[in-house]
TrEMBL record:
It comes from Maribacter chungangensis. It comes from the Bacteria. Pathway: Amino-acid biosynthesis; L-valine biosynthesis; L-valine from pyruvate: step 4/4; Amino-acid biosynthesis; L-leucine biosynthesis; L-leucine from 3-methyl-2-oxobutanoate: step 4/4; Amino-acid biosynthesis; L-isoleucine biosynthesis; L-isoleucine from 2-oxobutanoate: step 4/4. Its EC number is 2.6.1.42. It catalyses: L-valine + 2-oxoglutarate = 3-methyl-2-oxobutanoate + L-glutamate; L-isoleucine + 2-oxoglutarate = (S)-3-methyl-2-oxopentanoate + L-glutamate; L-leucine + 2-oxoglutarate = 4-methyl-2-oxopentanoate + L-glutamate. Keywords: Amino-acid biosynthesis, Aminotransferase, Branched-chain amino acid biosynthesis, Pyridoxal phosphate, Transferase. Belongs to the class-IV pyridoxal-phosphate-dependent aminotransferase family. One of its GO terms (molecular function) is branched-chain-amino-acid transaminase activity. This is Branched-chain-amino-acid aminotransferase. Acts on leucine, isoleucine and valine. InterPro entries: Aminotrans_IV, Aminotrans_IV_CS, Aminotransferase-like, B_amino_transII, BCAT-like_C, BCAT-like_N, BCAT_family. It is an enzyme of class 2 (transferase).
Length: 354
């Protein structure tokens, strides 16, 4: 049983900002809908969620988010079909992962009905912002952080859960060129790499800026001890195709357990594509590139969807990926996006009607 929708208070905007949005030229995550959901944790309990006009938040300068980075987020999308029906993709998995992240960062869990009823009420209210142009969708950002006060380095006593939404186009503007990183690490054994914690992303910015300055878009992280195993990229999990076999590394406490990743593994199995979940060494990938057996590399994530990689850099050498007629990336992307936009059957039960 969910919380009753009537317990979510709604304060509507006086004037909508929708006319200011150019739906034909949407960047990723840079314009926002009229409303947001806000829910406060105080005195050991979550208060009822409220929907309010999208606005600034006021916080005490000693709020622990600013000092100790107690903050987590999720990334989801809402899609509209040709009849204007609204769909989500495996949203309960995002809720589950949100609470896994919350636990690791000592943030109180958010109940499923607050998350789901809050989100669906918000989506219905702001449904006019869900784009219908090909390749666009409404990017949804649920996040939670320590709003409680004090400089003591310990978990806060107050938190905020917010859902904000942004009509968005593609995450990457064009080809994706990646650098295999062997100096810096994204995460460590026993660390917080598996959590969608804000600091995991802040820590990537500097090495990623260095890679961008060399002409790459993203870093592919390797394990923190030997820098020999391919882990994931900054905002997506990684797949490689050697000959006909699709391979992705196993998840661990250093890697985000991506929902797109696990969906691709299931689709590949059903499509009869040989798929392996196993450790991939950098040496194996470089040797396959040299031998011509490395056919594809692509990233997978909610924002990135399935993003083909055109080349990778390793130790000052660039290796270009071949251009195939019907790459797995294209085939699987069509299957997954047809499910998301309600253009096909959904034999997996992943589509969620709002
Ligand atoms: N890895 C990282 C670091 C990410 O930020 C994301 C994006 O959410 C992913 C992988 C892909 O996860 P998902 O497919 O659940 O969006
Ligand atoms: C997502 O794909 O939803 C993410 O959270 C990645 C983010 C860095 C844009």
């Amino acid at each position: 049983m969910g919380i009753e929708t009537k317990s979510i208070s709604i304060e509507k905007v006086k004037t909508s900002r929708i006319d200011q949005i150019d739906f034909n030229n949407l960047a990723f995550g840079s314009v926002f809908t009229d409303h947001m959901l806000v829910c406060d944790y105080k005195n050991g309990a979550w208060e009822l969620p409220k929907i309010v006009p999208y606005q600034n938040i006021s916080l005490d300068p000693s709020s622990k988010i600013f000092h100790y980075g107690q903050s987590i987020f999720e990334g989801m999308k809402a899609y509209k079909d040709k009849n204007d029906a609204i769909f989500l993709f495996r949203p309960l998995d995002n809720h589950k992962r949100f609470n896994i992240s919350a636990n690791r960062m000592c943030i109180p869990e958010i109940p499923e009905d607050y998350f789901m009823d809050g989100l669906t009420t918000l989506l219905k209210l702001d449904s006019a912002f869900i784009p219908t142009n090909a390749g666009s969708s409404l990017y949804i950002r649920p996040f939670m952080f320590a709003s409680g006060k004090g400089f003591h380095a310990s978990p806060a006593d107050e938190y905020k859960f917010i859902i904000a939404c942004a009509p968005s186009g593609a995450y990457f503007a064009g080809e994706v060129k990646v650098l295999i990183e062997q100096t810096y690490s994204r995460s460590a054994n026993g660390g917080v790499g598996f959590a969608k914690a804000g600091g995991n992303y802040a820590g990537q910015f500097y090495p990623t800026q260095l890679a961008i300055a060399k002409g790459y878009n993203q870093v592919i992280w390797t394990d923190d001890t030997e820098h020999e195993y391919i882990e994931e990229a900054g905002a997506m999990n990684i797949f490689v195709r050697i000959n006909d076999t699709l391979i992705t590394g196993p998840t661990s406490d250093r890697i985000l357990d991506g929902i797109t990743r696990k969906s691709i593994i299931e689709i590949a199995k059903k499509e009869g594509i040989p798929v392996e979940v196993r450790k991939i060494t950098v040496t194996e990938v470089v040797n396959a590139a040299k031998a011509g057996t490395l056919k594809e590399m692509f990233g997978a994530g909610t924002a990135a969807v399935i993003s083909p990689i055109s080349a990778f850099g390793f130790k000052d050498t660039d290796y270009a990926l071949p251009k195939l007629d019907t790459p797995y990336a294209q085939r699987i992307k069509k299957i997954i996006t047809d499910i998301q936009y309600n253009k096909s059957d959904d034999p997996y039960g992943w589509r969620y009607k709002v």
